[in-house]
């Protein structure tokens, strides 16, 4: 035989439930602040712009010349400087604006290349940072002609 007693109060007859206290309250994404440096956005934009067919180089002739010299000097900036060459970013809390200076290959449609660069840069920056890209200004500073030699010098050591 089983002896059960009821108190007559349905709430009292149910098993007791313990409440779990959550610490911190709210989603993890709301617990703190994330800041993204201008240089991070510049790197992302620089790499995305270089991926577009028809973009020969980034930056003006003078900045590319100085960059080539800086790349050869130990501790001169090297890869970081070449990735961000020709890119300037202004980063706010939720938005960013970009200025790019590009050199295009001869024979390509500059309008098409600029449009493709704009699309690629916006997609990459928004996907990776979550920032809204409000504008991408593109300045075409030069056209690379097929017969022009590259600015690379012969290596001093063989």
Automatic annotation (TrEMBL):
Q: Where is the stretch described as Disordered? A: 1-31
Query: Which InterPro entries does this one have?
Result: Asp23
Please state what the protein is called. Putative alkaline shock family protein YloU
Q: What family is it from?
A: Belongs to the asp23 family.
């Amino acid at each position: 035989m089983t002896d059960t007693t009821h108190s007559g109060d349905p709430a009292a007859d149910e098993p007791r439930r313990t409440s779990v206290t959550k610490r911190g309250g709210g989603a993890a994404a709301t617990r703190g602040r994330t800041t993204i440096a201008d240089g991070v956005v510049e790197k992302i934009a620089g790499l995305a712009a270089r991926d577009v067919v028809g973009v020969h180089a980034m930056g003006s002739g003078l900045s590319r010349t100085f960059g080539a010299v800086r790349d050869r000097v130990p501790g001169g900036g090297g890869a970081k400087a070449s990735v961000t060459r020709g890119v300037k970013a202004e980063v706010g809390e939720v938005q960013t604006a970009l200025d790019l200076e590009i050199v295009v290959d001869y024979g390509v449609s500059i309008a098409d290349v600029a449009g493709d660069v704009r699309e690629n840069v916006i997609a990459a920056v928004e996907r990776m940072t979550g920032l809204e890209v409000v504008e991408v200004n593109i300045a075409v500073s030069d056209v690379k002609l097929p017969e022009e030699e590259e600015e690379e010098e012969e290596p001093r050591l063989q």
